[in-house]
Amino acid sequence: MESLTKNKQDRKVIEQMVLRAFPTITCREIIELKEGYFNVAYLIILDNDEKAILKIAPHPDSKIMSYEKNIMFSEVDSLRLVKKETDVPVPDIIYYDNSYEFCSFEYYFMSVIEGETLNVIRDSLSEEEKKAIQKEVGRYNRSINQIMGSRFGYYGQLGLQSTNWFEAFRNMIQLAYHDANAANIPVPINEEELLSLLDRDKSYFDDVTVPTLVHWDIWDGNVFIKDKKISGIIDFERCIWGDPLMEVGFRSYERNADFFEGYGVLSLTKEEDRRARWYDVYQFLLMVLESEYRKYETDDLYNWSKDMIVQCVKAIS
């Protein structure tokens, strides 16, 4: 996917990055991976036949949304944490450079996950295989959510974190509207109206007292499958210390019984369902902004997200 935030580099620059990460090995082949939406990524094949993935952060002059600040650090640090604390299959961080000595942006190398993404092979799987994989997604997601932190908010933005989840989440919504105003993006729901509804529902958030690690983006494109089993989960860059109900598996429009079984829940309580629906609203609020910030080739995502956020707000009004 082409995106304004993708900070593509020529071979000479990439070779210098490889040299810093692998001082005794040279680079044989560089292949751009086009699936992502934010960072540019390359498959690096070294002269000794070893492979690695290189991810490069946007140029510092790129216009990004508030929640996207410092997310390369978030991904690297959270991957190391998940690797240490769980059995979730995630890539190894090989080398991370945030020194800005060689260039004005961050980059890192990670190990290659074997297999294909679930969105690519889903149609080739039997119903039983799909059910088993969804249960496995739920189990791994639960393991991620069992990692606890000390404050709520964006993983890599300490200054925006809070000891209270409602305050942190309310601030996230306000920041999204700030980004909309900064880029002159029309949002179909007025900020004051939405915050008034949120304040009305404040008590539903009282049960969230412990910050837990939330991946927030475990969709099929971030789940690798090999031999009909999950071989890896990637893209932790948007992780949050928050409420596990922010996870994709709890979105109200695509709840999956097999995910729930693997996660270890039968259903959501009234309070949990209301919070999950607020997280639907927040997701589509960000997606309304995404097309403009990334300069996608069409307005399809904007138009679809605009309709979805109206439906989601109507469901909680």
Automatic annotation (TrEMBL):
Q: Which UniProt keywords apply?
A: Kinase, Transferase
What does the record give under GO molecular function? Answer: kinase activity
Question: Would the keyword Chaperone be found if you checked this record's keyword annotation?
Answer: no
What Pfam families does its record include?
A: APH (PF01636)
Keyword Kinase belongs to the record: yes
Which CDD domains is this protein grouped with? APH_ChoK_like
**Where on the tree of life does the source sit, at the highest rank?**
Bacteria
Q: Give the signal peptide, or none.
A: none
Domain Aminoglycoside phosphotransferase positions: 30-250
User: Which InterPro entries does the entry mention?
Assistant: AGP_Transferase (IPR051678), Aminoglycoside_PTrfase (IPR002575), Kinase-like_dom_sf (IPR011009)
Q: What is this protein called?
A: Predicted kinase, aminoglycoside phosphotransferase (APT) family
